[in-house]
Write a structure and sequence with these properties.
InterPro entries: IgGFc-bd_N (IPR035234), TSP1_rpt (IPR000884), TSP1_rpt_sf (IPR036383). Among the domains are: 475 residues, no CATH class; 76 residues, no CATH class. Helix content is 12%, strand content 30%. The chain is built from 8 helices and 49 strands. A hairpin with a 2-residue loop joins strand 12 and strand 13. Helix 5 runs antiparallel to helix 6. The chain is globular and about 115 Å long.
Length: 865
């Protein structure tokens, strides 16, 4: 391989120079694509060559899923960088899951890179699963060598771009014309020459050669990009394009920096197809509130793009060839129409910080969107099960509105509960999106209507997406299927083959020419017309209608749907739709006049809580789920959290699982066997034995004496607190605050007294209960004072001498004006008696009070204080 005479850093403002073959190739390919001659979406082939996108973690995993669609085993040969081939066997009509050897995984930032090769004598399909870390994965649909072309346009997600180029045979002369319409800091150095925007890198790659252009360690630069970079070859070649640390902006997060710098670390890439066109429809995404982005790349100067979203019709002008533009898809699927061919990439956007109240599952993913011209009527694909991460999987289908009832999944009519949406800008197209489970899927339409399929999934801080481009090479027969969530799926069988049998027939609703045996008589679509006659002499009339000549018929609107809310949680309007299907227009009949959608300005979620508004430690619609074992508030939508409290595990599922046997503490890292010589009694703190009453915690050091009954020995939680205390969730350790009194501080001073209480146990009021308050206060203070005074005299002072005087003095000083006449007589009598006792002279020879009496009177008072 060699580099030619590239333009370096001193000529970055100059436009890319092209060899003579470049413009001819571009014009030819675009013309072929526009005319629909090039079958670029048929990705079933016999040979696959590819290089891996740059991955940045220490030991990533690469798992390939190899499909054999024909009714025989397929022997595939695998090699890396020209090494000896290794034979792999794919079971007939099944999937082989093959993990690449760790020694075969290597990466290169700039320069030659390793190339992988899979080939067979029989057609098969290859899909790659890239596992870069627990929060970084992606899925790439590999394009066979048979479908390669000579011109591609790259797409990356704003920073850490990564592009891999690889060839098959012969000497391939390649030009890389660097471009980006975004703020740009990317540059590479190869053979001591710097390349940046508007410079051209010229390469010569030999057979099975690869070249990498990556900047994956510049994580602090949020704007480096290679979008719009054009890659041309003298012979067909393959290209994978994307980002190592994919990141996008998001309308949900408060700021761009908050959105991407730490939380967004997902690899996002796809293998490119030359699928430019002028009529493109985007898929609908369920399962997220963040919306999506659509990336447009021009193939010619002054390209006008028109599209419609919820607010109305909009227009974008891409002024130069290779210029690009992000369009935000907030409300639903859109139709984009351009006057010149454009490339369209669909982008799942970044999630907010996992500490944000708007955090949700998912992160960037990138996939090519084929134009309507390249839709097909049958596909085979897989939803992956890598047995490692908790993931929500979805399938989104774009199809003609009138053909949606003809969809068949694994030879069964679509029965899943799906979200159906009309496409903004047209009533002729419709999207169906539903959640599903891992398995192999065969999808086609009974009436051969073309459609597109997208597969995507979310997990905590990662996401993936790819478009199912595999056309049936040899459609397999119906198989024994299992139903998961309304979708008939076929499980993986990577070792043995089960007997293939036809599923039991179930009578279904009839739609004309639906390709289904609706009446289970063993014949499909046998009735020839809706003529109210028994055409097949089976005693039934018009029960299974197939092809018949139709007269021209105008369409008529069906009934309005019920009012619905957009997926945006904070939307301020309802909407409803109707379809032109009562009846549908036929032959040259006119489509319905008028609008297929109505809106009302009305708060959608007035009757239920939006997950973003849930109190801490609750989540889900209506906030009806809880996550009390999370260390910090969990995700408002799915309940996942960052860390668990000690004793709990599985933060992705809301820390609902206790630590396994013989483990305890934070992260379940404690060893009960070492600490207790047995399993721990409490997983929270590793307590080995039960604490005594009113004690809890590690080594029983904590007290819950303010609890009415005994507390939990693990966390101190108790059911009720004694009067004057609260916080039963933590040993009743908080005294009642202002305005509160009683058990659990549940009673209000203001309701009882009209003001704050002067005491928190009984709730004594400040005015009407003053005397009682004073007496309680005196009784509490007096014993302490007397005990101290007694001790100060060395035990030579009698309590009988001081006690009456002390009480009388306190009452006279503080409360004489508040004594009632009845009480006053009692006090005066006490004063006289006290005086008569104290006039007796005291001497050192007087007999002291016995010690036993001192202990009986003094000791309990001191202890009580």
């Amino acid at each position: 391989m060699s580099a030619g005479n590239p333009k370096g850093e001193n000529s970055t403002e100059m436009r890319c120079s092209f060899q003579k073959f470049s413009k001819i190739l571009i014009r030819s390919v675009l013309l072929i694509c526009m005319q629909g001659i090039l079958d670029v979406s048929c990705t079933t082939g016999k040979m696959y060559i590819f290089a891996l996108p740059r991955m940045i973690h220490f030991e990533p995993k690469i798992i390939s899923f190899l499909y054999a669609l024909k009714n025989r085993k397929v022997e595939v040969y695998y090699s890396y960088n020209g090494s000896a081939s290794r034979a792999l066997m794919i079971p007939a009509r099944d999937v082989l899951k093959f993990e690449f050897p760790i020694n075969d995984i290597s990466f290169q930032d700039q320069g030659p890179c390793g190339v992988y090769k899979l080939h067979s004598n029989t057609e098969f399909i290859v899909t790659l699963l890239l596992l870069d870390s627990e929060i970084s994965l992606d899925v790439i649909q590999v394009i066979p060598v048979e479908a390669w072309v000579k011109v591609y346009y790259a797409a990356t997600l704003t920073r850490t771009p990564s592009v891999q180029i690889f060839t098959n045979e012969g000497v391939n002369l390649i030009q890389v014309c660097f471009m980006s319409s975004f703020p740009y800091t990317f540059q590479i150095t190869y053979d001591s020459v710097k390349y940046m925007k508007d410079s051209t890198l010229e390469l010569q790659l030999n057979a099975d050669g690869g070249f990498s252009i990556s900047d994956c360690h510049n994580k602090t630069d949020p704007v480096g990009s290679l979008t719009g970079t054009r890659i041309t070859g003298s012979m067909p070649l393959g290209v994978i394009s994307g980002s190592c640390y994919g990141a996008t902006s998001s309308v949900v997060c408060d700021t761009f920096q908050k959105n991407i710098l730490d939380s967004s670390r997902d690899i996002a890439a796809d293998m490119l197809l030359p699928t430019s066109g002028t009529n493109i429809i985007t898929p609908h995404i369920e399962g997220r509130y963040s919306g999506s982005d659509v990336l447009l790349v021009a193939t010619a100067d002054n390209t006008t793009v028109n599209y419609t979203d919820d607010p109305g019709q909009k227009q974008i002008i891409l002024k130069t060839d290779r210029s690009s533009k992000f369009v935000s898809q907030k409300f639903g699927p859109m139709r984009l129409e351009s006057d010149k061919p454009i490339y369209v990439f669909f982008v799942l956007v970044s999630s907010c910080y996992n500490t944000s109240d708007k955090y949700e599952w998912g992160d960037p993913a990138l996939t090519v969107v084929s134009p309507v011209l390249h839709y097909y009527d049958s596909y085979a694909f897989s939803v992956f099960d890598w047995n490692q991460y908790e993931t929500m999987h979805y399938i989104s289908i774009v199809i003609q509105t009138r053909a949606r009832y003809s969809l068949m999944i694994n030879y069964t009519p679509l029965q899943a509960r799906y979200t159906g949406r009309s496409v903004f800008g047209t009533v002729d197209w419709y999207t169906l999106t539903f959640q599903t489970k891992p398995g192999v899927y065969y999808v086609h339409t009974a009436n051969s209507a073309p459609f597109a399929v997208f597969v995507y999934g979310f997990g905590p801080q990662y996401g993936y997406m790819y478009s199912a481009r595999q056309l049936f090479a040899d459609p397999p027969p119906p198989t024994t299927a299992r139903t998961t969530g309304g979708v008939s799926t076929r499980p993986y069988q990577t070792t043995t083959n089960s007997k293939v049998t036809a599923p039991p027939c179930e009578k279904t609703e009839m739609h004309v020419n639906d390709g289904i045996d609706n009446d289970c008589d063993g014949v499909v679509d046998e009735e020839t017309a809706p003529d109210e006659k028994d055409n097949d002499n089976d005693g039934l009339v018009d029960e299974d209608i197939g092809h018949y000549p139709l007269k021209s018929r105008n369409g008529s609107w069906g009934e309005w749907s019920s009012w619905m809310c957009p997926s945006d949680c904070y939307s301020t309007h309802y909407y409803r739709i109707r379809l032109c299907d009562n009846p549908q227009p036929t032959t040259n009949g006119k489509f319905c006049e008028g609008e297929g959608k109505e809106t009302q300005n009305k708060q959608c979620f007035s009757a239920q809580s939006c997950p973003y508004d849930c109190p801490d430690y609750t989540y889900g619609l209506n906030c009806d789920s809880k996550c009390p074992n999370c260390e910090s508030p969990c995700d408002k939508k799915n309940g996942s959290c960052v860390h668990c409290l000690p004793g709990w595990t599985n933060p992705r599922m809301g820390c609902k699982d206790a630590c396994p046997a013989f483990t305890f503490g934070e992260g379940c890292k404690g060893d009960c066997g070492k600490k207790c010589k047995k399993d721990c009694l409490h997983k929270h703190n590793g307590q080995c034995n039960e604490c005594s009453s009113k004690r809890w915690g590690i080594d029983c050091k904590d007290s819950c004496v303010n609890c009415v009954t005994d507390c939990s020995k693990t966390n101190g939680v108790c059911f009720n607190c004694k009067p004057g205390f609260k916080n039963g969730n933590h040993s009743c350790n908080i005294p009642c605050e202002a305005g509160e009194f009683g058990a659990d501080c549940s009673q209000s001073c203001f309701e009882k007294c009209g003001a704050d209480c002067v005491e928190r146990v009984e709730g004594i009021c400040p005015e009407s209960d003053t005397l009682l308050y004073v007496l309680v206060l005196v009784m509490a203070i007096a014993p302490v004072f007397v005990a101290l005074l007694y001790r100060s005299f060395g035990g030579k002072m009698s309590l009988v001498e001081t006690k009456p005087v002390l009480i009388v003095e306190e009452i006279e000083e503080n409360s004489v004006n508040e004594i009632h006449p009845e009480e006053k007589g009692v006090v005066e009598e006490a004063e006289v008696k006290s005086a008569s006792e104290t006039v007796q002279p005291q001497s050192h020879s007087a007999m002291p009070i016995p010690v036993e009496k001192e202990e009986q009177e003094v000791t309990p008072l001191v202890v009580a204080t």
